[in-house]
Amino acid sequence: MIRRRLPGLRAAALVLPLVAFLGVFFLWPMISIFTTAVSDREVSSAFPELGRVIGDWDGQAPTEAMQQALAADIRATPQDRMGDAVRRLNSQTSGFRSLFGRTQQAVARGTGPVDLVALDDRWAQPVYWETIRSALPPYTGRFLLAALDLQQGPDGITGLPAGQSVHVQIFLRTLGISALVTGLCALIGLPFAMLMLATSGWVRNVLMASVLLPMWTSVLVRCTAWLIILQNDGILSRILQTLGGMREALPLLFTRTGVVIAMTHVMLPFMILSIYSVLIAMPKNLMPAAASMGAHPIAAFRTVLLPLAMPGIVSGGLLVFMTSLGFYILPALLGGGNDQLISSFVAEYAIRQANWPLASALGLVLLIVTVVIFALYQRLSTQLARA
């Protein structure tokens, strides 16, 4: 029996490192992002006593039990946990930061019952208590809705006011810039790959080196180089001035044009190599055969070469597009305020505002978009293979 199972155990032992790698570096981060996006435990962990008594509140004036429970939670909850809860409540209803700053000092000085309304008349307003009660559930869809510029109100799910709805616009901007970069990479990458295919010897080696060397250079180094090139007195601006006969420098730095140029330069090698890997496997006599049969070069390219190169264009486009969705350094350093991608907002919420749930929600939405795009790519690849 043991001998029969031995080959299966050996196979499982060989696969186990791969399963562990996927679990640690893929499944666990995905689960962490999802749980963080729907978790809202700051308030419930900071106000356990209030959570037990506020459920029966009628929504009018605060009861004595609610006030004493809140005072007990303020005394028992550590300062760092209370700070997280106050920050969370203040993001939903402004005024909590100053209200708790004053209340905590007064409550900490005593041990007996406390009249919170006497300490600050804002505690008589139901809106603050209602905010605490709405934030007590440990799981919520508020952050996922906020990532889509939506909110849960008395009348159901509605859109955020015009001044607060920014995330959908940033997502559309990210998709638009990524699509533009992908299109430019395809327009430049296909002729370059065809040129590499048509050459041989040291010429092909030089062209291949011109593709590989930028890939081996740090993105930050290339970004610094583009900072110099795109300046008003940089080489690119001077060339455009000379060719266009312009007197003033063309602004390229801190503009969307500069961001697109730099992103295209960074992502172009991936498109070229994807297309070249498909073209190099093609028979060498297809285009000469089409020419011998009287086909015009443009017609031969359109009917012979382009369909055969399409799998490389599609796979390269997928790689460029999905990678461009997560660009952070280039837009942050080369773009202006209206050129930032969704990754900049994820970093803003996670690092500066410590709003991890909203940052995770934005990342989760971006992940869903990426999965949908990959599913469309799989379907398109299947159709191309059948054709």
Compressed to H and E, one letter per element, the order equals HHHHHHHHHEEHHHHHHHHHH
Low-confidence stretches: none
Q: Give the number of domains.
A: 3
Instruction: Using the 3D structure, state the CATH architecture of the largest domain.
Output: Orthogonal Bundle
Q: Could you estimate the helical fraction of the residues in percent?
A: over 70%
Would you kindly provide a written description of the structure presented here, covering whatever features stand out?
With 387 residues, the protein is mostly helical. The chain contains 19 helices and 2 strands. The chain has helices spanning 2-38, 42-46, 48-53, 64-76, 79-92, 96-108, 116-119, 126-135, 142-147, 167-198, 201-215, 219-229, 235-244, 256-279, 286-292, 297-325, 329-334, 342-352, 356-386; strands spanning 150-153, 156-159. The chain has a two-stranded antiparallel sheet with strand order 1-2. Helix 1 packs across helix 19 (356-386). The model has no long low-confidence stretch (mean pLDDT 85).
